[in-house]
Amino acid sequence: MKLREQMPELTGATEWLNGQVTKDELIGEKSTLFHFWSISCHLCKEVMPQVNQFRDDYKDRLNVVAVHMPRSEDDLNVAEIKKVAVEHGITQPIFIDGEHKLTDAFENQYVPAYYVFDHEGKLRHYQAGGSGMAMLEKRVNRILDEMGVTE
């Protein structure tokens, strides 16, 4: 995806965990962070506490949606996804992308990966890898500041 592109529709989930959301529900008052991860990704699990802390710190100002992107056949086991989600405290909605429909819509190739959309549903920031939580927080704060959303 290119910056300023519109958020794709959230269709094609194999299953949703922790509730289901639609694009229309995400656009409006808050910005939205999509977090791509996989149960076979060690780095994803390593940064999950930071993602969860970020989710909790920004809960009043930011929607957070996890997208489980399978990287192999083993990653398609929904029971295992549920188990890992519980073990790692993922309480936000999880779009299980067993057929890579949302992954393809985002043109995403990596886990972990982060996409931040503003309240109008336009992509404002993208990054991949595990070391960028400080940069992610800086970008989210800039977008929230532009919207006039303060703590």
The main pleated sheet reads as: 6 strands, mixed
What share of the residues does DSSP label as strand, in percent? 15-25%
Q: What is the assembly state of the chains in this entry?
A: single chain
Spatial order of the strands forming the largest sheet: 1-4-3-2-5-6
If helices are DSSP runs of H or I spanning 4 or more residues, what is the number of helices? 5
Low-confidence segments, given as residue ranges, are: none
Round the mean pLDDT to the nearest integer and report it.
Answer: 94
The CATH C-level class name: Alpha Beta
Q: What is the total tally of β strands?
A: 6
CATH superfamily: Glutaredoxin
CATH architecture: 3-Layer(aba) Sandwich
Q: Compute the separation of the termini in Å.
A: 29 Å
Number of domains: 1
If you compute it from the alpha carbons, what radius of gyration comes out, rounded to the nearest whole angstrom?
Answer: 14 Å
What general outline do the C-alpha atoms trace? globular
- Write the CATH fold name: Glutaredoxin
Helix content: 25-40%
State the secondary-structure class: alpha/beta
